[in-house]
Amino acid sequence: MLQRVAMGQVRFNVPGLTVDNRGAVFGRQVVLRFSALDRLVSFLRLWSGEQILDDLHPGMRLVQVRTAAGTREALVVLTLTSPSIGDTAARVARTVGGQCFTGAGKHFVQYRDPRAPLGYDVTGLDVVEDATDFVLYGADHTLTYTVLGDLALDKLLLRLDLQRQSGGLAPRREVLFLTVRRGLGPLVIAYLHRAERLNPTLRVSAALCEPRADGTFHRATAFWILRIEDLPPRLLGVLSGTPGLTLLAPVADNVAIAVGYRHPVHLGSCKQVFGIDRLFLFCPAPAGVTVIDPAPVFSPLADLVRLEPGHPLSTPATSLAAARPVGHLELIVPLRLEAAPAGAGRAVATIVPWERLGWLRSLCYALPPSALRGYRLARLPRGLLVVAPDVLDGFPFGELLHAPAPGLLVPLGWELRPAVSPEALAARMGATGGALVVFPGPGEAPFRIASDSVETLEARALADPRLTDVRVEEAVGPRLAWEEPMEIEVDNQTLGPMPLWRLGR
Question: Under a CB-based contact definition with an 8 Å cutoff, are residues 56 and 78 in contact?
């Protein structure tokens, strides 16, 4: 039977138990018991909604076991790195009707609860020594289990059916995927290509996916997959309601779920479960999950549409004439900022408004020495420009900028068009020798900051007048009189042939 742990108790009958800094029972592992598989799925769903499931995945083990009565249950074995993880796991498991135990090896005792704030232990006579894989000591009974096999988390997630969401279609997203049957591919590609001409921000690329003979979650027929950026709202209903088309919204870089549905587990919190070199498409039944291995390579729609009549390449050339210059033509293309794809560029600078200068002063006390020495400052009319040598860390405020080339600063999420060589552009605009050229934003003219106007954050932080106005204190008090050292005389005497003879007497 279980007994409550007393304050200051350090010796336990269950192997692997110890105490934390609060005096509560703490084991190296935690076992979560679920009587049915659906309760295990509910636990994964709640945990992924509150925490990052990737934090548990490297040390998490899903086990299917059999009890002494012959029934099957599911266990989750977690390696604890801190008591807070065990408390959270116990709370979530109890919410979905499971139990939590702590210990190590195969012996686990019930996790602490309000009835026993410091935890539980068992008497020496109740320790089970049978040849079983797991022994769980509960408040009501002791359970022994035999392992039937492990459950792979990735296969479990792929086998779960999607659930329909209420409220209609999902809101507008920046990137969407569209799967098209192979026969409908040319028509849909031509339709979206015409839509691109009417919507300058719409960008569509496509790839053809061929079937594979191996694998459980691969489609048996070929299909087209399109990657759509900035889809207009008027096209959302057309693409999602047409038979043969499936619109999917990404929840991770390589995981997408059909629009209007959701997965029982929050897949955005378990990105490490899915390989980065594959694309996972979760569609409603009976289609199920489609795994594209390797990930598709998308091509612009302009390279895939058929040539229209009257195109120079679609009509035979009747005669060729030598080209002659008509006159002097100077080609000038205006340089402008356009929205960049998600994840493009890393922040290397920020413009801190003058009203946030107090925040920057407080942040200087928390920055590491490398940041104080490496970050540079420039005073602008709109605020203070802070530039990092590589990546800007530790600045949660300000207008973030990235550097397409050394000396050029562009707002994060934007890029320069046309895509000329950044090095040539930096040299043309004078961003050399430590000078900076900043593009504030769309519709604003860029400006240049001379190299002598840029100073280090360390020098500006030490520009306190109190550091230079240091008062010199004069010596006060009586002067110390030092005594002259005594003279030392050395007298050398002859020792004779046996100098140690008289020491024994």
Answer: yes
Nearest-angstrom CA–CA distance, 202 and 439: 24
Q: Which amino acid is at 429?
A: M
Q: Distance between CA atoms of 457 and 451, rounded to whole angstroms?
A: 15
405 CB-near residues (< 8 Å, 6+ apart): 422, 423, 425, 426, 431
Largest CA distance in the chain: 136
Per-residue pLDDT, 489: 79
Q: Which pLDDT tens digit goes with each residue over 1-32? A: 787 877 878 788 788 888 887 888 888 889 99
| Phi-psi label, residue 214: left if phi above 0, alpha if psi -120 to 50, beta otherwise | beta
Tell me, what's the pLDDT at 217? 47
Give the helix/strand (H/E) hosting 425. Answer: helix 422-429
Task: Say how many CA atoms lie within 13 Å of 428 toward its Cβ.
Answer: 7
DSSP per residue, 341-357: PTT-S-EEEEEEEGGGH
- Sheet harboring 383-387: ordered strands across? 447-449, 436-438, 408-411, 399-402, 347-353, 383-387, 376-379, 455-456
- Crossing angle (nearest 10°) for helices 83-95 and 37-50: 130
Contact 31, 103 (CB under 8 A): yes
Q: What is the tens place of the pLDDT at every residue in 264-289?
A: 888 888 877 887 888 899 988 888 88
Condensed to tens digits (0 to 9), the pLDDT of residues 360-405 reads: 888 888 788 877 778 888 888 888 888 888 888 777 778 888 888 8
Answer for the pair 386, 392: CB distance below 8 angstroms, yes or no: yes
The three-point CA angle 352-353-354 to 5° equals: 115
Buried b (16+ CB within 10 A) or exposed e, 179-218: bbeeebbeebbeebbebbeebeebbbbbbebeeeeeeeeb
- Cβ proximity of 145 and 73 under 8 Å: yes
